[in-house]
Amino acid sequence: MQGLRFRIRGRWAHFRRPETNNTPLTHDFITKTAMIGLIGAVLGVERPDMCVLFPTLCTDLLYGVHVAGAVKKQSWAFTLRNPHRQSEQSPRHMEFLRDPDYTVALCLHGDRSRDTLRRFSEAVRASESCYTPVLGLHNCPAEIEWLGEEEFTPGSGPYTSSGFVLRTHRPSEEFNFRDFRLGFDRIPTYQDSDWWNLPDMYREVMYPSAGSAITVIGDHYRSRGGETWCLI
Questions:
Q1: pLDDT tens digit string along 93-124?
Q2: Distance (Å) of CA 152 to CA 4, 117, 211
Q3: Backbone phi, then psi, for 215, in 5-degree steps?
Q4: Contact 98, 111 (CB under 8 A)
Q5: Closest Cα to residue 12, out of 61, 74, 86?
Q6: In 3-state terms, what secondary structure has residue 39?
Q7: DSSP 173
Q8: I need a surface site. Which of 36, 152, 185, 194 has the fewest CB within 10 A?
């Protein structure tokens, strides 16, 4: 399948866990729904049209993430700015990711969203964006770096990944859990036209600590350069 790779980084990020309210906590890395929001910002999609784009791209896109460095979290008070209002809210304590840095892979199911992905890839390649791309919140601007077009070939069986994998993927007998730490998360993969993350469309994933890789058995994708990815 045809796709692309690019790098996203910034000073701060927050991908809110919906079950947290007074002091919102964040997912460990950029989620699929947050990625689609970033695509909308780059392409200049207005909010009324995003409610259609979300369920379409959630269905049509496969995405994967490799996290560079350790996942670092910090509780901090930020003043949240709403671009649609003149006034500012009071500072609010939230959990943020510090210095997030991701390599993201995207590819398509079918042809329905091919034009959307093409326009996004052209904009990233040219370092252009209609709106400021952010890492979850308007206080968290993102830098996007084009890495190249890619072709992903599906496979099944043992594979080694430095990105997230599904928790249903069975660890290989050669993998020693005592060698390093694993992170775990439950991330949203589908948002409907009412801006609702469907509870039954969350996926449980695990990812290795910084600078290491995990060997598991399951369905995966291999790039032309030999990297293996879990794409969901």
A1: 889 999 999 999 999 988 999 999 999 999 99
A2: 9, 15, 23
A3: -110, 120
A4: no
A5: 74
A6: helix
A7: T
A8: 194
Please tell me the pTM assigned to this model: 0.90
Q: Which of 9, 44, 50, 26 is nearest to 119 (CA)?
A: 44
Instruction: Give all domains of the chain, ordered by start, each with its CATH number.
Output: 2-229 (3.30.70.2660)
Q: DSSP states of 67-88 as a string?
A: E-S---EEEEEE----TT-SS-
> What is the CB-side half-sphere exposure of residue 25 using CA atoms within 13 A?
8
Structure tokens given for 147? 């890495």
Write down the pLDDT at residue 193.
Answer: 94
Give the closest residue to 127 by CA, choosing from 138, 107, 142: 142
Non-local (6+) Cβ contacts of 80 within 8 A are 88, 89, 92, 137, 138, 139
